[in-house]
Amino acid sequence: MRHARLLARFPGGDPSEAFEKIIDFEKYPELVDPVRTIEIERTSADDFDSRWSVIFRKGILNWSEKDHINRDALTLTFEQDEGDFDILTGAYRVVPTAEGCDIYMESTFDFGVSSIESIVEPIAARVLKENFELILLGLLGDTVHFPPDEQPDESVAPDYAVLDHATADTVAAAEQGAVAS
Q: Where are the transmembrane segments (predicted)?
């Protein structure tokens, strides 16, 4: 199980405008080569399903996820419902600041293969963060920066709310080394 986290500072950025750009997943393939496709199916005003196809190392990762938008909190949470990860859940949050806004990307994932997790998961976390940096720069411009001395601690589980209690139980069981069914 791996946690990937990224903090971006966006001085002068409008938090609501930044959030609307970040949740426009359909633009991501234009911004970074590894994101092959993202297909969106709206299920309500605040919920949608997304299907992702992403190049990772010498292969392709595919998954679908349930996404929930909370515009009041400037937060999008996601949870894989099918795909190549054993567990994939996370959030994008935009937090207003006196200078503009901060943007947080947090994700918890597990490929479900313990024999390779110490090799593959750190690489996946690095690639995830690098691609999100490029996406933010493409969406918001070069005033976005990523202060290296202020990045969140990845050894601690993120505090975002998952979409349902079953997943929270699954993540907690996996973190304790239990086998989830």
A: none
